[in-house]
Write a structure and sequence with these properties.
Strand order of the largest sheet: 1-2
Structural class: mainly alpha
Order of helices and strands: HHHHHEEHHHHHHHHHH
Strand content: under 5%
């Protein structure tokens, strides 16, 4: 059985019901919108985010979920989908998970409006049901994701990212959404308890490890599905490169910065940068940091009694850093 199927096993029934509820939560009186949301639902990814919501809810409550859990999972998926639609417009991307993106099929104006619609649907789903505690978790995540993206753009222009700033960017850009999923799961079944903050931290740690793993793919080979050197071409300062810049001679540092700034479209030069980062321990350092985040996340799980939900979450933590793409 594939890792994702094994992770999903203890929440299989909940995920089936969630899919129906999620599709219903998107419905509109506008037929164009319904056609587009039908397209989105039928091209879904692994749905890791709702899986986090259900697994955490069941682990902290001893196997129970409620309507708030389903709403929390729907809201996070609506918001996540909205951000992906907007990202494709911003990045001028024509593909998403191997299919045409919304902006490729319906143009930018419609894609932006659909993203706005999904965002408002998510917020209203919480407001209409007085889930203000869940709404706060989601709203903080949306704010942080926007700040993280803008911080990265600001820093990429100057290429002056320190390791601390890098962690802040990935915490906001990537980890905050997974942290929100885990916090929503706990808060939906045990509001006003310390579980929410504990699970938020758990999700944040997984998100940090997840993003470092993504950064490492940029230095891998072609088989992983993501072409190498893309981050360098886009002048994204990731952990292997930051470590190398901080631990090489001034001359090498000038060459690296010049390569990323002025020769980032030259494939031969990009390959030289990749080789230099590998030779100077950049990958080993990033892997070490990724594993430290993973271990801290697993330690948080150790405080819970054995259950199939806890087992699945442990599998999920390990899958994040063992995945091949």
């Amino acid at each position: 059985m594939k890792p994702v199927a094994r992770i999903k096993q203890p929440i299989y029934t909940e995920m089936e019901l969630f899919e129906k509820k999620f599709y219903e939560s998107m419905s509109s009186k506008v037929s164009l919108l319904n056609r587009i949301t039908y397209y989105i639902v039928n091209r879904k990814g692994k749905q890791m985010r709702p899986m986090f919501v259900f697994l955490v809810a069941k682990m902290v409550s001893g196997g129970k979920v409620n309507e708030r859990t389903y709403r929390g999972a729907s809201v996070i998926e609506l918001i996540h989908t909205a951000t992906l639609v907007h990202d494709d417009v911003v990045d001028d991307s024509n593909r998403r998970r191997g299919f045409f993106s919304l902006n490729a099929l319906w143009k930018n104006k419609i894609a932006v409006l659909v993203g706005d619609y999904l965002l408002s649907k998510g917020l209203l789903l919480s407001i209409d049901n007085d889930d203000f505690d869940l709404l706060k978790i989601i709203s903080v995540a949306v704010r942080e994701m926007s700040e993280g993206e803008l911080l990265q753009i600001e820093k990429a222009r100057r290429l002056d990212i320190t390791e601390a700033v890098y962690y802040e960017i990935i915490r906001q850009k990537t980890a905050t959404l997974i942290a929100a999923c885990c916090a929503l799961g706990a808060c939906s079944v045990k509001p006003d308890s310390g579980e929410t903050e504990k699970m938020r931290r758990f999700g944040e740690l997984i998100g940090m490890a997840f993003q470092i793993k993504d950064d490492l793919f940029d230095y891998g080979d072609e088989r992983i599905g993501k072409p190498t050197g893309i981050d360098i071409k886009e002048q994204k300062m990731t952990l292997p490169l930051i470590y190398t810049l901080n631990n090489c001679s001034e001359q090498d540092k000038r060459w690296l910065i010049n390569s990323v700034k002025n020769h980032n479209k030259n494939m031969a030069r990009v390959k030289e940068v990749i080789a230099f980062v590998k030779q100077n321990g950049g990958l080993e350092y990033a892997e070490q940091k990724m594993k430290a985040f993973q271990q801290e996340a697993l330690q948080l799980l150790d405080t819970y009694p054995p259950s199939e939900y806890k087992d699945s979450l442990e599998l999920m933590v390990n899958y994040v850093i063992d995945r091949k793409k």
